[in-house]
From TrEMBL, chain A:
CDD domains named in the record: AdoMet_MTases
Keyword Nuclease carried by entry: no
Keyword vocabulary terms for this entry: Methyltransferase, Transferase
Species this chain originates from: Fulvimarina pelagi HTCC2506
Stored SUPFAM superfamilies: S-adenosyl-L-methionine-dependent methyltransferases
Name of protein: Methyltransferase
Family matches, as InterPro entries: Malonyl-ACP_OMT, Methyltransf_11, SAM-dependent_MTases_sf
TrEMBL record, chain B:
Domain of life: Bacteria
Cross-referenced InterPro entries: Trm112-like (IPR005651)
Protein family (similarity comment): Belongs to the UPF0434 family.
Any matching Pfam family: Trm112p
Any single Gene Ontology cellular-component annotation: cytosol
The protein, known as: UPF0434 protein FP2506_01285
Length: 299, 64
């Protein structure tokens, strides 16, 4: 399977590779999969929907890993039909109606959906602006897009430790940790994609592990191992990771010796424009001068 | 005949929402072949066990 974006110039993430890895994990019989990262943001997105005073008739959940979102939003009263999409059939809950689709080339008709949700998928898109535009177009007027993704500070300790170890050993570095997007850029992307009332906010989760290797094991199980096109294709020496683990423990451990890993959750939401929404006043429509207003002379 | 009926059919409500992911044009549903046809893109997207596979890479190319 080759996703359209993999052929695109300047693609950063090898999306086919991430999908293949996730399929392999999903079909592996044994072993508990760590779902806590997805659970945290699915819970938050669900809480936000619960207090949104709107009925959403037709809802799309994009690539809902571990069905974390779907199992939660099913208990909300204001959600109607739910469609799931996933990049591979093995990642789709077959008991519930779904569609195999790539979020970078969405197959939904213009103005067909009331709500689009995505839980920790957008940081793995190459064409993030294009994805957001397609989501906005698929929404009915006054439809809502609500998503979580990993922001720029995610895995910063791992990134620094690997960089430092590789610089020491090889005198050069290769990228090993995904460049996660900055929250400010995401806000402007939402705006450029034509969303009204865009909101972004951030939440940090620190997870503690015994060693860097325990962290990397979890990342692999979650399909979050290095999927960068620019990744080094040579097998890395074990000594590199041993040194990186040392640096990690030196720089980012607590008093009890356990290491810290930061997960920087960014939450995005925006509405497809509709005339009922609040808008900025038209240019030139003010009847008080800015000077007077600033000097408090308007009363 | 009975066997044919047990083939999982896609949700008609879902089919109404789907368009060609490349051209965003409407699709024609071929019930016999279990395919969704995009005339503009000359592609037929398969439906397997009632699940539409809307990936251009999985679609069958149509001849003129």
């Amino acid at each position: 399977m080759s996703a359209a974006s993999n052929g695109q110039i300047g693609a950063v993430v090898d999306r086919d590779l991430t999908t293949r890895r996730r399929v392999r994990q999903a079909s592996a019989e044994s072993g508990a999969r760590p779902t806590f990262l997805h659970d945290v943001s699915a819970e938050e997105l669900t809480d936000r929907l619960a207090v949104t005073k709107r009925e959403f008739g037709c809802c799309l959940v994009i690539d809902d890993a571990y069905s974390a979102l779907r199992t939660r939003i099913n208990r909300l009263a204001n959600i109607g039909d739910v469609i799931s999409s996933a990049p591979h059939r093995a990642l789709l809950e077959t008991s519930t109606g779904g569609v195999v689709a790539d979020e970078e080339v969405l197959p939904f008709a213009p103005e067909s959906l009331d709500l689009v949700l995505s839980n920790l998928t957008l940081h793995l898109t190459n064409d993030t602006p294009g994805t957001l535009i397609q989501i906005r177009r698929a929404l009915k007027p006054d439809g809502l897009f609500s998503a979580s993704l990993f922001g720029s500070e995610t895995l910063t300790e791992l990134r620094q430790s690997l960089l430092a170890a590789e610089a020491e050993a090889a005198g050069g570095v290769s990228p090993r940790v995904l460049p996660f997007p900055d929250i400010r850029d995401l806000g402007s992307l939402l705006q450029r994609a034509g969303f009204a009332l865009p909101v972004t906010d951030q939440d940090r989760l620190t997870v503690r592990y015994d060693t860097m290797f325990d962290l990397m094991r979890d990342l692999r199980l979650m399909g979050l191992a290095n999927s960068l096109f620019q990744r080094s294709r040579h097998p890395s020496k074990r000594s590199l990771f041993l040194r990186a683990a040392e640096i990690y423990a030196e720089r980012y451990s607590d008093r009890d010796g356990r290491i810290r890993a930061t997960f920087d959750y960014v939450y995005l939401s925006g509405w497809a424009p509709h005339e009922s929404q609040q808008l900025p006043a038209r240019r030139g429509s003010a009847n008080v001068s800015m000077k007077d207003a600033l000097e408090g002379r308007d009363r | 005949m009975d066997e044919a009926k047990t083939i999982a059919q896609p949700d008609p409500k879902l089919l109404e929402l789907l368009v060609c992911p490349l051209t965003k044009a409407t699709l024609r549903y071929d019930r016999e072949a279990q395919e969704l046809i995009s005339v503009k893109a000359k592609l037929a997207y398969p439906i397997r066990d009632g699940i539409p596979i809307m990936l251009p890479s999985e679609a069958r190319e149509l001849e003129d």
